[in-house]
Specification:
Blueprint: E1 10-17, H1 22-30, H2 32-49, E2 53-60, E3 63-70, H3 76-89, E4 109-110, H4 117-125, E5 138-139, H5 150-159, H6 174-184, H7 189-196, H8 203-209, E6 221-229, E7 232-239, H9 245-257, E8 262-266, E9 270-278, H10 283-292, H11 294-304, H12 306-310, E10 314-325, E11 328-338, H13 345-363, E12 366-372, E13 380-387, H14 395-410, H15 412-432, H16 437-448, E14 458-462, E15 468-475, H17 489-498, H18 503-526, H19 530-545, H20 551-563, H21 568-578
Antiparallel strand pairs: 1-3, 1-4, 2-3, 2-5, 6-7, 8-13, 9-11, 9-12, 10-11, 13-15, 14-15
Helix pairs in contact: 1-2, 2-3, 9-18, 11-13, 14-15, 14-18, 15-16, 15-18, 19-20, 20-21
The site of 1,4-dihydronicotinamide adenine dinucleotide has 23 residues, from helix 12 and helix 13.
Pfam families: HMG-CoA_red
GO molecular function: hydroxymethylglutaryl-CoA reductase (NADH) activity
EC number: 1.1.1.88
Length: 581
Amino acid sequence: MADPPRSHAQWVATEYSGNASDDDARRHRISPANRRVTDGLMCRVVRACHPIIDIGLFPRGWSFTLAWQVHATHSRSFVSCLGSRLNHHSGPYSTPSPRRRRYSSAQIAPIRTSQNPISRIIQDQRPKRGTGERPLILAFGPLAGSRISSRRVRVLQETSPKTSRISGFHKLEIAERLKKVSEFATLDQVHVDQLSASSNIDAHLADHMIENMISTIAIPVGVATNMKIDGRDLLVPMATEESSVIAAVGNSSRQCYENGGFTTSMSGTQMIAQIQLLDLTDPATARVAILERRSEIEVICNECDPLLVRFGGGFRDLEVRLIEAPSGTMVITHIVIDTKDAMGANAVNTMAERLAPQLAEWTGGRPLLRILSNLADRRVARARATWRCEDIGGEAVRDAMIAAYEFADTDPYRAATHNKGIMNGVSAVVLATGNDTRAVEAGAHAYAAKDGWYRSLSRWEVTKNGDLSGVLEMPMAVGLIGGATKIHPTARAALAILDVDSAEHLARIIAAVGLAQNFGAMKALATDGIQKGHMALHAQNVAITVGATGEEVAEVARRLIESKSINTDTADKLLAEIRGA
Ligand SMILES: CC(C)(COP(=O)([O-])OP(=O)([O-])OC[C@H]1O[C@@H](n2cnc3c(N)ncnc32)[C@H](O)[C@@H]1OP(=O)([O-])[O-])[C@@H](O)C(=O)NCCC(=O)NCCSC(=O)C[C@@](C)(O)CC(=O)[O-]
Ligand SMILES: NC(=O)C1=CN([C@@H]2O[C@H](COP(=O)(O)OP(=O)(O)OC[C@H]3O[C@@H](n4cnc5c(N)ncnc54)[C@H](O)[C@@H]3O)[C@@H](O)[C@H]2O)C=CC1
């Protein structure tokens, strides 16, 4: 077999034969079971032969031809080993039989095709006219598991061979990157224009914020009204793509506004970084040896970030835990750092990396991971509010909401959705202020499981006056310094609307929004159901989906709500009516 060319990708094919009867083979081609089997086979092959891309499976009679793309980076031995692996993995659709053909690696040969290898293979494998058989074409890699339509086949023919291996992509200008993406994905001009459009963040700033940047995506920012937090009236900016989220916060806050709104507090602004030590024969001794070095550790950590120390932050505490793992006992050191107005991930990661070699020297252990924990349980924001029974619709509503809460607190299936509702509010403020949504979300869900099972982040009770009281406590690692908070102009503007003077202040506001959101969703669910309010607001999106523009949007939405059938079919008809079609 010839070496694969070093400059471009090429297609290589081999043929597989099953020992199934012709009837079975015919069934193979049409049955979902076979689809699963062949998909499974190919998944394993793909895994085994990574980084192959674009594998096609083409039935011919009762045999299959596999074709895959080989790249310049693939060595001859790599290509050769494919054969044995494919043979090895071909079991699931072939029962043992002498009739089964097995292919040695030597029999795998590049298909000699000119410019259209895929089209050639497809033609080769197409059943004869008049047999009534339709070729089944399964694609893998970029088209994983899909049955390729003739249009997709055309696209494949036109664009293959294509590769995602683009060295130096990050060094290109934004426009050049976009051109490459557009060629790779054969984008229509309308998509290219959309991706090139400017937004309220300068493209060059965005290019510095992330890697391989080609565009920006604008998420609507709204403000929640009616919020009174710790006696102060606030408008809270929220960035979200979901309708009814901001309305719910305003509506919930309205209902407790006269009763004082929200009261908030916070446990502190401390973050934990973990350092993992392995290979210790005497982990208990190592643990104590580390604890003895507390003051040295404090110095090492604080020396990493004099600016943080100047702002009143720095080392606060030390914990050392022993974790039993299958490979032995791990010694896990926690450094607890007050990161003040920074979220603090970079700050504590630097300290953990600086400290790790010292821990190794003191204990003889092997340091491995050195990274913050997103379970920021030393940075818990709290919010509470009481809704007067008469302000929320009476005892029946209150009791229904308590029952809704109890469901969430005892059933993880419900708790996940309940907490998602809380995060609708939380993540929207976190995003609007340029903070790290994933960090806060990870912390929230880990905290929700802190008692050993996944439960509600909020607690709801009936007060002695018969009112409804809600409490939310959750880790809130957000900052005013660092990350995107200082550099994203929209985040800066959002922080200006909030007029917050510390990360703690911001975290407390976010907790209040989370509680308001939770109240709104629970009340809707326990009374009218979510669709009434949510879908009424979502109706505008449905109108836009079917092509309504300008004033048509509100009109189609209005008629959709009236019709009580908020879906695209109805919207289509209503739009046609409005346009007099
Ligand atoms: C949607 C509402 C607020 C309607 O509630 P409503 O009582 O019909 O509203 P209203 O028209 O009587 O207005 C009352 C107030 O709501 C606000 N409001 C009302 N409409 C707007 C609007 N267009 N834009 C901005 N604010 C609005 C506004 O504050 C207004 O006061 P006003 O300004 O008139 O003095 C209510 O039904 C609600 O809160 N529903 C819950 C919505 C929700 O949770 N959405 C999230 C998406 S669903 C989800 O993802 C989470 C979930 C539900 O699965 C979580 C879970 O399961 O727990
Ligand atoms: N698992 C995770 O959550 C991870 C998150 N990140 C990212 O880390 C970034 C946040 O890291 P940071 O350390 O906050 O950012 P940063 O390193 O940009 O800024 C923090 C630094 O700002 C200085 N500073 C100035 N004024 C300060 C004040 N008043 N209070 C506190 N520090 C002050 C301090 O030197 C401090 O170390 C986010 O972008 C996050 O997405 C990074 C790694 C992991």
